[in-house]
Sequence to fold (362 residues):
Amino acid sequence: MSQSSWLVGGVVPGIERQPCKKLEPSPERLLAVLHRWRDEAVRAGGNVTRIALAFEAGRDGFWLARWLAARGVEAHVIHPSSVAVSREHRRAKTDRLDTELLKRGFLGWLRGERGHCSMVRVPTLAEEDAKRPNRERECLVKERTRLVNRMKGALARLGIRNFRPTLRNAAEHLAGLYTPEGSPLPPNVAAELARDIARLGLVIGQIKQIEEARRRRLEEQPESSPHAMVRLLARVVGIGTETADMLVNEVLSRPLRDRRAVARYAGLTGAPDESGAKRREQGLAKAGNARVRRGMIPLAWRFLRFQKNSALARWYQARTADRRAGTRKTMIVALARKLLIALWRFVTTGETLEGVVLRPAG
Fold:
């Protein structure tokens, strides 16, 4: 699937040839091709009880899978990195070869041989939409940091180091700045900084709008499943509403099978490299949700600060008694994994967190 065309390959019962058709990106055309191949199979004497289709997860997301499922097509989304490919140094790679590779993997998966490929769970439109405010805020916070660093860097080159761009009256303070030589800011620098302050004000305003909209949602629908999880998670001392909202919408509200699936989805599992007598650990697999992984490591450090008497904090302290930096770095990742699993159990099954201090409900 690309922006300009879709290449569709199929296996049609009762027909020896395996058709391959290039289409413009149109779901209606795709559905028409699938129905035409089904009719050919029926005319050849085949008994078609279902139409199964799969494509790689990518830029187009999951809308096509939902659209096809609503029209009676069994649609699956393949995890791209789960398909085994040739390890030749220069392997041939074309769209048709990739289509054949995906087709073989999908047929094996349909036969029940799960090692051929892995499928991505198709989220609902509401689940996808619930992630947008938190992700937008993350982008805006990065933009705010970029603008502040840009302005401070421009002023540092002129010898000015005491300017705070995030103040409400930063534009007024800018007009009164002088270089150490006693001269006012150069005109081009002053105009650039004024535009940056205006952009920074817009970004800060949009961040406040997102936070206020989330606060209203939590107050208006406190009993809905994701909002109830957020409110429950935010009661843990050391976890704020922003972190709770990210964890719930990114991982905790997903129907994960067990604690191993939770850790794998966050990419907090190891990647062993074993061959013969060689035994070594390559570090984190980093194959899951990067947002969850980036959020859990700082959260684990905060948890040690605010929940010193909890069972998890004592577990960490007992294993880092040697005070070595390498041990602390390794064990904080293990603590992040155990903490994520404990929080998942806390919001899904109600299992209590031993020794953890909670804020009053309300």
Notes: The mean pLDDT is 91. The radius of gyration is 27 Å. Residues 125-220 form one domain. The longest strand covers residues 278-284.
